[in-house]
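Quick one, tokens below:
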């Protein structure tokens, strides 16, 4: 070996050939070398220490166009990597997908939800004590007795505390929807007769949600937009006020109440990094908050012209589902 080649073997960018006095070869060395292209650009002390200990000071100019993480591999590392080393390298590449400054984050957002068409029905149409509100049978439109309508568009606010690990984010999420308005029609009478139904309600939900940042999995990224998918499960507490059913001559009042039940959601959206700590999220979301129920309780029928005394009722529970699509705009702050 010439003096020039000996000097090259001892240069900072090259690791000299192994000898009997060198430390034993470790499988994790191969894994680390394989994962080096996935390392974060800067600020990772573990990567920096490994590079400098194993390869000397990493330089960016390269020799004959070979990057430093390949240029620094010695002859013995050219042998095939073990399955364990490859698995470790893949895991390190996946974990390196975090592009924010910290693992924990706080997220706050606003949105609009639009539940679909729903209907209030009896929990037991055959109940007599207490009395079923609707009863069994078919109404004037041929459908089972019910009150069908919509809850309308409702604003929502949300707050989440999350932890990001690689391409995955886990988040504890709280959402509040302060004001739903149900507007519908009963079907006791012929379709052209007045039988309007209205009620107001609100909901608060808590979920444990998981998100997958697709860009961190090295999937195609459309410009600055980083797509993500997510889902969550938890509980929702809904509160409904008194329901008013207005007929040609009378108004029937149904008692309000509250209920807590299972809730879940699915979401898809895009994220845009505003700086190293702040990310803007825009997402579509489908939410299902389970059943709303009016409880057993006192209702009454009032003749609006005052021709008769109000008629008290002991009413059985009714139910409807609360679910629908929505959009969310939120900010994530990593810390």
């Amino acid at each position: 070996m010439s003096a020039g080649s000996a000097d090259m073997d001892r240069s900072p960018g090259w690791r000299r050939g192994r000898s009997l006095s060198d430390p034993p070869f470790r499988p994790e060395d191969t894994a680390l070398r394989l994962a080096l292209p996935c390392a974060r650009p800067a600020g990772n002390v573990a990567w920096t220490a490994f590079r400098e200990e194993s390869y000397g000071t990493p330089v960016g100019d390269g020799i004959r166009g070979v990057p430093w993480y390949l240029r620094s591999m010695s002859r013995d590392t050219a042998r095939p990597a073990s399955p364990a080393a490859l698995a470790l390298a893949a895991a390190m590449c996946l974990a390196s997908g975090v592009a924010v400054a910290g693992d924990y984050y706080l997220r706050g957002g606003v949105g609009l939800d639009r539940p679909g068409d729903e209907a209030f029905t009896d929990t037991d149409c055959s109940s007599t004590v207490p009395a079923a509100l609707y009863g069994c049978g078919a109404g004037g439109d041929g459908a089972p007795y019910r009150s069908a309508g919509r809850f309308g568009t409702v604003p929502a606010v949300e707050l989440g505390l999350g932890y990001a690990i690689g391409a995955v984010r886990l988040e504890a999420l709280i959402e509040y929807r302060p004001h739903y308005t149900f507007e519908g029609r009963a079907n006791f009478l012929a379709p052209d007769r007045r039988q309007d139904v209205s009620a107001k309600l609100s909901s608060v939900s808590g979920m444990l949600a998981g998100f997958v940042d697709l860009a961190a999995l090295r999937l195609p990224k459309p410009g600055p937009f980083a797509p993500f998918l997510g889902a969550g499960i938890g509980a929702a507490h809904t509160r409904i006020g008194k329901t008013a059913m207005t007929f040609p001559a009378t108004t029937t009042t149904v008692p309000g109440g509250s209920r807590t039940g299972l809730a879940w959601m699915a979401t898809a959206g895009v994220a845009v990094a505003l700086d190293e700590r702040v990310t803007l999220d825009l997402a579509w979301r489908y939410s299902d908050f389970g059943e709303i129920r009016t409880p057993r309780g006192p209702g009454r029928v009032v003749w609006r012209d005052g021709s008769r005394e109000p008629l008290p009722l002991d009413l059985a529970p009714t139910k409807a589902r609360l679910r629908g699509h929505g959009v969310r705009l939120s900010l994530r702050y990593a810390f």
